[in-house]
């Protein structure tokens, strides 16, 4: 069915006025539709602009984060400062510890070096970092494996000492009653690390026997000896070998 516009000449006055009224409303409707289209187009343009700006901001943030990680791997303190300055990491001890614990893109040697620092801030961060580890119901080797995987032990004896003291305190807190003191846990942890190094070092031909390990740890439990059953579990190298944190590629 074809619809065609009526010839105004064929319309009476009322019909002609109605016809003009319809034409005027049609024009207004078309103008309103066009205006709405323009407004929608403007909204979409603003959304696209916002998305592009947000994408650009995220790209810039990721770029700065990458730079911060590289700086950390070269100089941990400068890397943390860079991340603080660019608002990518707050100065909160807990947040910095969480950043190191996650370790995304971070060199584990650099993490260990930073955590072993003697400055008051480093000591607080070390404590917060250790507190992120859950050692409940783990025997000592399992806990050491988890702990030493999260970073690489630094070469400086004083740094290692501070880190192992923090580990021993945390382990005893998570496992009350296993050892009579944190000193016992501390000494035994060092013995386990030394034993593990000897057992898995191909250059060491004469592997230390279990009896030597027992002898090394006599009297460390507040003057008493630890149960041999516990020591046997810790020296079962086939199932309980330590895996130290490996160095990440820069």
Automatic annotation (TrEMBL):
UniProt keyword list: Coiled coil
SEC7 domain mapped to chain residues: 54-241
UniProt entry tagged with the keyword Coiled coil: yes
GO term, biological process aspect, one: regulation of ARF protein signal transduction
Molecular function terms from GO: guanyl-nucleotide exchange factor activity
UniProt xrefs under Gene3D superfamilies: 1.10.220.20, Arf Nucleotide-binding Site Opener,domain 2
Name this protein carries in UniProt: Cytohesin 4
Organism (species): Monodelphis domestica
